Amino acid sequence: MPAGATPGGLSVTFGLTGVHYAVRGVGRLWTAAAGAVLGAVGLLCPLVLALVLPF
Length: 55
Description:
Blueprint: H1 5-23, H2 29-52
Helix pairs in contact: 1-2
């Protein structure tokens, strides 16, 4: 598994949890959404590169 997949997955999880709480009034929505998007990029880029690039 690529090294970016685990931290990227955790970032998506924590970012979406932050969005959940921000909608309910605890925390800031833009920082949670930015964290979720950056985590998704960190999760998807290594996986896409692993699928596209031959070994």
